[in-house]
Amino acid sequence: MKGIVCCKAVLPACFLRPLSYEEAMNIPTLLWVALGGSLGALSRFGLSSMLHRILGKEFPLGTLAVNLLGCFAIGFVYHMLVEQNWGQAQHRHLLLTGFLGAFTTFSTFSLESIHLLQASRYLAAFGYLSLSLIGGLAFVLLGIGLAKLLA
């Protein structure tokens, strides 16, 4: 199967160029993403759990902290790895797609929104922001509703 696979929908780090199917699906690339993803998920769990334990669960401060920290990190790492061309492809796979992708998808959502705004694609940005927020809430409600029907 030949074609173009780009994580642009997942992560704008592919703005450099789309990955071919063979590049995206090779074992080293998958291992870098898996390693980063497992470390990101463990970091998210550890940090949010620690903050919930310290600060309580009345307000989701742990999740908020993870999302804001992830937004800062993806902005910094994206600029250094992609725009300043530091590192190599495996660093992007490990840190952007893997670690930060698992740490928080909110950071990716925020970076993609910024890219749309910087490209003066205001209608697309508004649509993306609106559909993500309203659609996300609606689909959570739909999932809960379906689960209640099936339970």
Average pLDDT over all residues:
84
Q: Which structural category do the helix and sheet elements fall into?
A: mainly alpha
- Sum up the overall morphology in one term: globular
Strand order of the largest sheet: 1-2
Biggest sheet record: 2 strands, antiparallel
| Helix and strand run | EEHHHHHH
Alpha plus pi helix count = 6
Q: State the helicity in percent bands.
A: over 70%
Percent of residues in beta strands: under 5%
Weakly predicted, low-confidence segments: 1-16
Overall strand count? 2
Q: How much is the radius of gyration in Å?
A: 17 Å
Q: What is the end-to-end distance?
A: 40 Å
Key structural traits:
151 residues, two-stranded antiparallel sheet, 6 helices, globular
What does this structure look like?
With 151 residues, the chain is mainly α. It has a domain at 4-105. The protein is built from six helices and two strands. The protein has a two-stranded antiparallel sheet with strand order 1-2. The longest helix has 29 residues, at 27-55.
